[in-house]
Fold each of these.
Amino acid sequence: MQVTMCPERAIMEHITSKWGVLVLQVLSDGGSWRFSALRRELEDVVSEKMLTQTLRTLERDGFVHREVHPVIPPHVEYALTPLGKGAASHLVALAHWIEANQPEVSQAQRRYDNS
Amino acid sequence: MQVTMCPERAIMEHITSKWGVLVLQVLSDGGSWRFSALRRELEDVVSEKMLTQTLRTLERDGFVHREVHPVIPPHVEYALTPLGKGAASHLVALAHWIEANQPEVSQAQRRYDNS
DNA sequence: TGGGGTACTTACTCGGAGGTGAGCGTGCAG
DNA sequence: CTGCACGCTCACCTCCGAGTAAGTACCCCA
């Protein structure tokens, strides 16, 4: 493995970033989402600032397509590109694995804590 | 998706943490590693402090097995548990995907930057 | 008349992630 | 006899990820 800051590691950090993980999972259903609908779906745990920033990074990497309808009030839609779907699928697989194994992990944590 | 801090999200953050991603990938080859060998493999980009902290978190989650040989000088070995192998395999898959698609991503970034 | 929704941007602030350097207690190589 | 390797831990400090609040420009509904 090549480690010193290479493009691959940067891309990995974008995908596995705190908010990137969540955004990619929501978008992975294939639909297209408006900014505030996306935020509501994430139960407002992410601030507007960080959501914008995260979406910009993912857009720059070619994972997210941003479509602006120049109307007032503003209307913007976000969706995964084919490239984004590839990345997101791995994240979704990991998320499913975690969901399935969460009890086992929690048990391991309890074991570790009382010892 | 359930979002407000649930055990699943915490586990996801451990696995996708900055150093967790790298450690799990190195350990994923199945072998067992000594502390400083692991650090050298990561080309010293991670400090001793953060490596210890990351390994502790992964151990608590039941992903990493830590075996201490009580000799002087100290001898400690780290290896993935079966549970850890499950998690790491998804990370490795993602890493391979990134490696394969890195040129396309870099191209997207260049396109984004000159516009 | 004014309050809320839309999709942001900017400025200010703060906590915590993370780096640095030292210390430890011994065995072994030089 | 010196000094390094090992696998940490602790104290200190820095910097950046992230939150909060306010502003924007316009429309619609009450």
Amino acid sequence: MAKHKTKIPQIIIRRLPVYYKILKQLKSSSKDYVSSQDLAKLTGFSSSLIRKDLSYFGTFGRKSYGYDICCLFNQIGQIMGFDKQKNLIIIGAGHLGRALAYNRGYQERGYNLKAVFDKNSKLIGEKINNLKVRDINDLEKYLGNTPILVAALTIDNNAAQKITDRLIAAGIKAIWNFTNVSLKTPAEVLVEDQIINQGLCHLSCKLKQNDCLEFH
Amino acid sequence: MAKHKTKIPQIIIRRLPVYYKILKQLKSSSKDYVSSQDLAKLTGFSSSLIRKDLSYFGTFGRKSYGYDICCLFNQIGQIMGFDKQKNLIIIGAGHLGRALAYNRGYQERGYNLKAVFDKNSKLIGEKINNLKVRDINDLEKYLGNTPILVAALTIDNNAAQKITDRLIAAGIKAIWNFTNVSLKTPAEVLVEDQIINQGLCHLSCKLKQNDCLEFH
DNA sequence: TTTACTTTGTTAAAAAAATAACATACTTTA
DNA sequence: TAAAGTATGTTATTTTTTTAACAAAGTAAA
């Protein structure tokens, strides 16, 4: 299926989830096929770019028809590795950690949320979406018994690096970082920084450019 | 302060929040100045790119010293319009809406969280971070009395477009969209899609490329 | 004061990304 | 079966973005 052995350009990786999202919506529509032009309207990318992106991975379209929605959806899922199972834990059972625990969308992406940890004894033992909050002191013991690939970090900034070091020592391969700390990790451990306020930054920036911020 | 009248390239807008985040961390360090090389290490961008990005907005550096951390932090905040006040409401008091209600980081970006709405009568009246959850039926009345620029949308997908239409009719200028729906809005209303699982998609994609997904 | 060093801001060059254009292949209709 | 129409996949072109290079300006040390 993979047409290229070379690394997928970051810029394409960033668009894949957008295609995936749109295709998921289209799946529940009455149509079976979608053209690059339709996708252009829905994504805001040009049809040319969309065809080019998709052709990077193979030949999915059907001339004069477009792309089979279901087929393309599955293909893009596979390209992103959603067909492979990945265990996930959440560190930090605060408001954000809790919201992530209730997040739907893990399963279809191949993620299995296995545990939630916190240091606060008041929270330990509480059930969040059917998962018992575990004691952060038991982290190493747990990771020794259960192979976990990814950890979501929703803890205080000042604890972020320390917990990261422990996670790495225990063999975690990737961190979904919701803290405001720039984590130091070895090159082989992936970090995905999720700047929660990024969207607000963009909006503020664009509102300013549109002169929406003058009097209010 | 603004050097250019032309629109800031999207690609630079995307990097501004990263600079902002790093500078905020640096502010609480002992150093007063930071060089583009230091910033390169912290951001992962090249020092050349950083100098170019910053020079797009003006001349902030000091030769052979680098950039005054506090000064640059404030400048970038201003460039993004954080010095202008923006009222914000949250639609949807579920787990995610709740997490957003507790989000710190509004104030320093010039956002004032003014209200939270929900349709669920069990939630209406409840206090979340000192804000009483309001009845979504009162949305128009509220917006008629209070000027609100931005609405965060943390509701079910199937209600998303309907609520969006109401928000737009009531004069909202920007939507921070956490739903999985591609919202249809007039060109002058900004939409910032926050695909909550985007980070997981990227991680899955990269883990796959690093051959971390084979056996597990 | 002079020399060596540092780091910016900017220009030039290279690389990457996006767009436009179009030949090809398939579909539909007559 | 032929003609008209559609939409892909790919190549060529343009545009954007990034990197590299360096002069200019300031600092620090001798």
